Amino acid sequence: MKLDGIASFVAVAEAGSISEAARSLRLSKSVVSERLGELERSVGTILLHRTTRRLSVTEDGAAFLERAKRIVREVEEAAADLAERRGTLAGPMRIAAPITFGRLHLGPALFPFLAAHPQVELILDLDDRRVDIASGAYDGVIRHGVIADTRLMVWRLAPSRRFLVASADYLDREGTPRSIGELDRHKGLFYSNRGAADWRFLGPDGVEIVRAKVALRVNNGDMIRDAAIAGLGIGLLPTFIAGPEIRAGRLKLIDIGIRSEPEFVFLAHPEGRRPSAKLRALAEHLKRSFGDPPYWEEGMSIAAST
User: For the chain, what are the domain ranges?
Assistant: First the structure.
């Protein structure tokens, strides 16, 4: 049983096709197919059903897959550990992050890190859907929000503040709310991946959840920002998205007398797995790059709205 055959099987099972797996492995389809066939002969069973339309994992293949993933991961981590013992950060690193933050801030911070460590092979998955950190599919997951799950192994990268914002046109038409109770009659722009409890504030008696009338519910922060600029309603947006629009005057801050619940940009990694040296180095690099307070809040006169 050869390691390259196991790695090919894992890649095909995860990609759902030999073509996609071949691209990710930088091999030809024929080489991947040959390695799969050799692996199946060595284990004495069929691991994948192949038809002209689709490819699926057999029952035996599913039983073998989880251990195959662990084998590939352990070998990758062993090779990376040897490189780190020589003072070099090397090997694959899989990270997931939200789209807007990834495009606006994570990418510019990552590029110098990758240039300084050319042997690191970063696989970055930008997606606003929540990722199951415990699945082990990623070395680390970067997220923005409240750190509520104490089971997560979390490194805080930067504090993050969210503020109620709207266009001047909307506020001229509908009025400016001055208290949490006045928000009920306004139209809200909500981030759907947070569920129904998107607007959370710290009141004198603890967390208060506001559910305004829904004008738009969407799973992307850029869309909420643009909808607020278009005058469709009020959004509760982090400064890393809304900062430039606030400074330019296209969005106005709304002060209701209480703050939104404290949040962070954080990197979570699977519990029970020792984080690699390159993941720790990346976390420290991102913390330095973002700053405390983070650079995206510089030059903003928001003290009156806190």
Answer: 3-84, 88-160+264-297, 162-261
